[in-house]
Amino acid sequence: MVFIDDADQFPEEFPEGCADEAKSWPLGPLSLALYNHSDCARELVAAVLLLCDRQEPEVGWVINHFLMLLRRMLITSPTRLWLRDLLESGLLRALILMTLQCDPRLKPHVGYFLIVLLPASLVYFRTVVAYRNALKDVQDLLSGDALKQTPWYREGICRWEEFLTLADERLEVLTAHQSSSFEAQKACDNSECGSIGESSSLRRCSGCRAFYYCSVQCQRNDWELGHRNACRTHDRLLLCRSFGNFPGFFPT
Ligand SMILES: [Zn+2]
Ligand SMILES: [Zn+2]
């Protein structure tokens, strides 16, 4: 850890053309090298998790350093990072352990994950699945009242309670979605109608098999309004499915 401290001093002078944002949150040479390989984000979380188990006072400094870097990667990295990857690497356990240890240097990071990053990412199906698995892994930490007794939890500083309530709601949606009781809702594709119903109650266009209508009349109207042409060309639009491999394009 002394080595990291020595090796990663922030530069005293910034290179010409350096962005203001980078100046306000500078990276030392070690952090810069890690930042340029944002694939290492999972390893950073694993390292934080390991360090959380150590009691030496200087550990908090290194964790602080790693979390700053991780946050910067999440916000600015050219390679899109997903919270679900970090949840699979032990992020939730690390956040709980940091809360139990209450190192004031780490409070802004824990708060940022719980208030900003995780709530925003729990709208994605795979992130909620990753969260559900992560939750099973931390039952040993959540089974008692230890977390609720921490000052950060009691004083609502990191908004643990709000986060856990929100996450529970998203888990309920996931469970409903995965059970047979859930049926997808669709809107009538006649733009002059747009009424919403369960997909099985709507009629599907037999030509493109992609447009849905609430009635024969709506299907006729939309045919005249332009679906006559759109139906034929729909297959060509399906080429855009190749973007499914493009990170962030279809965040499922
Ligand atoms: Zn309709
Ligand atoms: Zn059609």
From TrEMBL:
GO MF term set: zinc ion binding
Matches recorded under Pfam families: zf-MYND (PF01753)
MYND-type domain segment(s): 190-231
Keywords: Metal-binding, Zinc, Zinc-finger
InterPro entries in alphabetical order: Znf_MYND
Signal peptide as annotated in the record: none
Protein name from the UniProt record: MYND-type domain-containing protein
Species, as recorded: Roridomyces roridus
